Structure formats: C-alpha cells, structure tokens
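FOLDING PROBLEM:
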Amino acid sequence: MAKRARQEGTWLIPGNLHLPEECRAVSEVLSRVGDKWTVLVVTMLGDGPKRFNELRRALGSISQRMLTLTLRGLERDGLVSRTAFPTIPPRVEYELTKLGRSLLTPVSGLGTWARQNQTAIQAARRRFDEKKSQRVA
C-alpha cells in the first residue's frame, strides 16, 4: 500500500497529487470544450468545412457576436482553422483541425450521455427540490 501524507484535512497518495498549475490548465481547457456553443460548433464542423452564415443558420439562436467569439477562441486554441478565399465578396470557411477532430469523439459521447440521461437528471432535480422545500416548510 502506498504511504499517505496528511495535508489540509485530506489524505494524499504520492503520484496522484493535483498540482495547482495543472488544475488551472485543465480547467481552462474544460471551460473551452465544455461551453455550450463550442460543443455545437465542433459538432457542426464534424461534417466538414462550413461558412460563417451556414453555421449561424444551423445553430439558430446564436448571435453573430457569440459565434464570432466562439470561432475565434476555437481558432486560438488550435481546434479550428479559418481559410479566407480571395473572392468578391470574400468567402471564409471554418474547419476542424486534426486536434479539433480528436475532440469529436468525446463531445459526441458527452452529447449522447446527456440525451440518454436527461430524464433521470430532471427526475433527480425534482426529488431534490421537493425534499428541500419540505425541509424549509
């Protein structure tokens, strides 16, 4: 059995330590890939390159500003590439990079899990809220 060291009320097992800088880095990545619009944009781009307005129409309720910010963030993180074609009017396409395509499987899996479990989660929330309201009353 691994030797344990006590620190701030928790038992730590060497080799399983969480370094603050690693936690921050993982948190930043999860914030990006777990964002509602990121998940939808990555999923849409999984079918191949799309123009800005194609994405906007397909996503429905996203604002132009939010789509621009989402695409810019994905491009900055190396998940999406932006290609401008020298035409009149200018044409710009967005496409998943190799890194972005590697995100498709976990994003799809998470989406599938959410769809399969949404009823159970809603039921659990109702039970929780009912118990909480009974305690208050």
User: Anything to note?
Assistant: The longest strand covers residues 80-85. The helical segments are 20-33, 36-45, 52-59, 64-76, 98-136. Residues 5-136 form a domain with the Arc Repressor Mutant, subunit A fold (CATH 1.10.10.10). The mean pLDDT is 86.
